[in-house]
Design goal:
Length: 136
């Protein structure tokens, strides 16, 4: 495989995982956000989905972000009768974000990002070594 292709494939992976990391960070930041009025929806957890897309110039499939979607399932209620968004029974809808799950997802995305970065660094080193040999 061509080293430049390997670098471009890894760069696409880094870009996709970077989007995933930003989305996870947003989820963590909003884990405790509550609605401001009764009947409003709380923050909904977002997840990134990926797809393979053929790059005709390279002749390979690259990973791309397909979409970022909100997950409706898992909204819970918390008893906070003094909160402005409390319903008539004193319950407030809370975000469906589990910080532990988000941290595990973040670690997985970080490792994938680092693996792609390692491929780029090794490819770069091999290209520089080849250039060094040609200069002799």
């Amino acid at each position: 495989m061509d080293l430049i292709k390997a670098m471009k494939i890894s760069a696409a992976g880094m870009k996709a995982q970077g989007t995933r990391l930003r989305t996870i960070s947003e989820n963590i930041a909003n884990a405790d956000s509550l609605p401001s009025a009764p009947g409003e929806k709380p923050y909904l957890r977002k997840v990134v989905t990926f797809k393979n897309e053929l790059d005709r110039n390279l002749g390979v499939k690259l990973v791309k972000v397909d979409r970022i979607k909100s997950v409706e399932a898992g909204i819970q209620k918390r008893f906070e009768p003094t909160h402005p968004a409390a319903d008539k029974d004193g319950y407030v809808d809370v975000p469906n974000v589990n910080s532990l799950v988000e941290m595990m997802d973040m670690r997985e995305a970080q490792r994938s990002y680092e693996a792609n970065l390692s491929v780029i660094e090794v490819s770069k080193s091999m290209i520089q070594g080849t250039i060094g040999l040609l200069q002799r």
